[in-house]
């Protein structure tokens, strides 16, 4: 699943560690989500969306749905 | 709970448990001590390292429960790789023991064997996921 987390984080001037601290997850988790190696659970996706004040669909793009 | 706090709680239980295990193994394998102890006490002595093992595996279970979801996924994969490798070796070696003259492998080595495979899997998964496997 593609996502815009890296850009959103950069816009806020946050490091991966700082974002991880805000989300209560490790820096490794932020890195894995940003690089698309890990898709977060729904509760974490909601938490990310709330933090950046936008909808989940604005951050995470379902590649299969987009291609159809 | 934050992953940092989960890791701190893990280390707080893991370190004393590991010390207990090492001390227990040392005592249970020192002939001088085994020679002076009555037979009944030896049964008690060999339980000491098992208490250490229980402590650190409980710490590991708690860490997996309390850490974040990505680290949990990496940990569970590493544990499964470790169990899988150990079971494969046990199956092959067990059958060889039945039908050939290979030496009997003491069951004591199951635990260090598991942690060897788990450690290798954790290092591989950490490298693959660019995530330090926090348990190692």
Question: Could you explain how this protein is built, in words?
Answer:
By secondary structure, chain A is mostly helical. Chain A has helices spanning 5-12, 16-23, 27-34, 42-51, 56-59, 63-67, and strands at 2-3, 60-61. Chain A has a single domain (2-67), classed as 434 Repressor (Amino-terminal Domain). Chain A is built from six helices and two strands. Chain A has a two-stranded antiparallel ribbon with strand order 1-2. In chain A, helix 2 crosses helix 3. The longest helix of chain A is centred in the last third of the chain and has 10 residues, at 42-51. Chain A is globular. The two termini of chain A are 14 Å apart. Chain B is an all-alpha fold. Chain B folds into two domains: 1-67; 68-136, no CATH class. Chain B contains six helices and no strands. Chain B has helices at residues 3-28, 31-36, 39-45, 47-66, 69-99, 110-128. In chain B, helix 1 runs antiparallel to helix 4, helix 4 (47-66) packs antiparallel against helix 5 and helix 5 (69-99) crosses helix 6 (110-128). The longest helix of chain B has 31 residues, at 69-99. The mean pLDDT of chain B is 89. Chain A binds chain B through residues 20-21, 24-26, 28-29, 31-33, 35, 37-38, 40-41, 44, and chain B through 1-4, 67-71, 73, 129-132, 134.
Give the tags.
heterodimer, A: mainly alpha, 434 Repressor (Amino-terminal Domain), 6% strand, B: 2 domains, 80% helix
Could you describe the largest sheet of chain B, including whether it forms a barrel? Answer: none
| Oligomerization state | heterodimer
Specify Rg of chain B, calculated over alpha carbons: 18 Å
**Largest sheet features of chain A:** 2 strands, antiparallel
Low-confidence parts of chain B lasting 5 or more residues at pLDDT below 50?
none
Largest interface, chains and sizes: A-B, 16 and 15 residues
Number of domains of chain B: 2
**Whole-number mean pLDDT of chain A:** 90
Low confidence ranges of chain A: none
Q: Structural class of the secondary structure composition of chain B?
A: mainly alpha
CATH C-level label of chain A: Mainly Alpha
Number of distinct beta strands of chain A: 2
% residues in beta strands of chain B: under 5%
Helix content range of chain B: over 70%
Structural class of chain A: mainly alpha
CATH superfamily of chain A: lambda repressor-like DNA-binding domains
Overall body shape of chain A: globular
Order of helices and strands of chain B: HHHHHH
> Which bin fits the share of residues in helices of chain A?
55-70%
């Amino acid at each position: 699943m593609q996502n815009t987390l890296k850009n959103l984080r950069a816009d806020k001037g946050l490091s991966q560690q700082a974002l991880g601290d805000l989300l209560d997850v490790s820096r490794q988790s932020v890195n894995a989500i940003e690089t698309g190696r890990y898709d977060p659970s729904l509760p974490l996706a909601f938490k990310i969306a709330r933090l950046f004040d936008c909808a989940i669909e604005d951050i995470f793009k379902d590649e299969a749905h987009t291609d159809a | 709970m934050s992953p940092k706090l989960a890791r701190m709680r893990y280390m707080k239980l893991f370190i004393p448990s590991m010390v207990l295990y090492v001390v227990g193994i040392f005592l249970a394998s020192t002939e001088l001590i085994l020679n002076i102890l009555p037979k009944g006490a030896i049964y008690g002595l060999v339980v000491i390292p098992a208490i250490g093992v229980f402590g650190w595996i409980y710490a590991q279970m708690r860490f997996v429960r309390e850490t974040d979801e990505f680290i949990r996924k990496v940990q569970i994969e590493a544990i499964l790789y470790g169990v899988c490798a150990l079971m494969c070796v046990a199956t092959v070696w067990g059958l060889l023991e039945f039908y050939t003259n290979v030496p009997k492998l003491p069951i004591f080595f199951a635990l260090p064997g598991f942690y060897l495979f788990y450690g290798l899997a954790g290092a591989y998964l950490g490298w693959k996921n660019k995530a330090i496997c926090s348990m190692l």
